[in-house]
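On clarity, I found the account of how folds are encoded harder to follow than it need be. What matters is that the chain and its backbone geometry are given together, residue for residue. The format is easy to grasp once an entry is in front of the reader. For illustration, here is how one protein appears when written out as sequence plus structure tokens.
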Amino acid sequence: METPRSNLSQILHHINGAYTTYFNVKRNRSGHLFQGRYKAILVEKDEYCQELSRYIHLNPVRASVAKRPSEFTWSSYCYFIGLKESPVWLKDDSILGYFNKDRKIAQRLYRNFVEKVLGKNLEDPFKEVFASTLLGKDEFISWAKEKWIAYKNVDARNVPVLKRLMSKPSFGRIDEIVESVVGRDDRLFKKFCLYASHQMVGFPLKEIGTYYHMRGSAVSQSGRRFKQKISKDKKLKKIEKEIRNRISSVEC
């Protein structure tokens, strides 16, 4: 979903409230209709848009409610690949435009792009989300932070990205949290401090390097290696989850 104004949270609030009421009255039911809270992530469009679109269209297949994405009734996939005529409100040009200027060719190429991974273990692109807020390369993350955090007088209530980035704990507080989980003398202490500062909180590499007396490039390399190590180690995953939960609960 795309909007030219920073009012996405208001739109989702309306859907979650007004539509739920309408649906419950019509179906003679009560209670919540949608599971979980609304979550917004700022995405580097050119780098991740195609992957995210494919991943979302394959959700019904992963959930075992359809063998092919085109079989799922409530999906927009059939419109994207030209099996059905798109409704007026559905704009698929931004996705199909990555594949070809000719719409028919783009639809065929997009279908190949999606269905060539059927039956394969597709990597979840959301695993690359940075600080629970941003999805993109280091340059994009730095740009987003420099551009938006500069606007201190912006009302961040309708821009969840700003709200999270503006309320981050200090380096010292991060050190304290990591120490409370693994201990300061543990060999994992600094690795988790670097990882948490960049991946969980969103400090720029240069600032992290200055605080920990390292080059920004060394911080980046260390973070990538440690992230891969965490993904393969259950004990490290458990520690990472505990640190993330404690950082999320910090009053800044």
Notes: The chain has a mean pLDDT of 83. The longest strand covers residues 42-43.
